[in-house]
Design brief:
Length: 167
């Protein structure tokens, strides 16, 4: 918003019960898309839950400008009929957007991102040609690390979208 980009922040919690969380968030996103048909980008932003088989949590961190930051992973899916994913006709546009966003973050904040996770899953990424799942660290990162990374993500996203801003 500070960069002059129109934004809708849906702060509802859809995973109070994990089962069905993506269906509930999809319903909300579709309602926004119906109300505001000019929306071109949807981002599901949350923290990951990373742990090994013994329950030890992983805390992905990077040091950016002398401060600890939660590493960010962008997830984008592909349409794969063999695995039942048939609702991502623009998967290639999502992938292109994911790679541009990762480059924007890395150009400004080297080490902030983990590799893009390209998978045969949907996660509501069929909503727009630029729909991504973004995981800001994990539940083992501190809130300060996640907030710091979120600010850098916002700055990189604003830089990436600058040419598309409405004047």
């Amino acid at each position: 918003e500070k960069a002059g980009i129109n934004v809708i922040h849906d702060m509802n919690v859809y995973d109070k019960t994990y089962s069905g969380a993506y269906y509930r968030s999809e319903d909300a996103a579709e309602a926004y898309l119906k109300k505001y048909p000019s929306i071109r980008i949807t981002l599901d932003i949350h923290r990951d839950a990373i742990q090994d088989n013994s329950g030890v949590k992983t805390k992905p961190v990077a040091e950016i400008n002398g401060k600890k930051a939660a590493q960010i992973m962008i997830i984008t899916g592909c349409q794969e009929e063999g695995n039942g994913i048939t609702d991502l006709p623009d998967w290639d546009k999502n992938l292109t957007f994911a790679l541009k966003l990762q480059k924007s973050m890395e150009d400004s904040f080297s080490g902030l991102t983990r590799p893009v996770y390209f998978c045969d899953r949907s996660y509501n990424m069929g909503l727009t040609p630029c729909s991504l799942l973004i995981e800001v660290g994990s539940d083992a990162n501190t809130l300060d690390e996640a907030v710091y990374s979120g600010k850098m993500l916002g700055n990189a996203l604003a830089d990436l979208l600058e040419p598309y801003k409405e004047t």
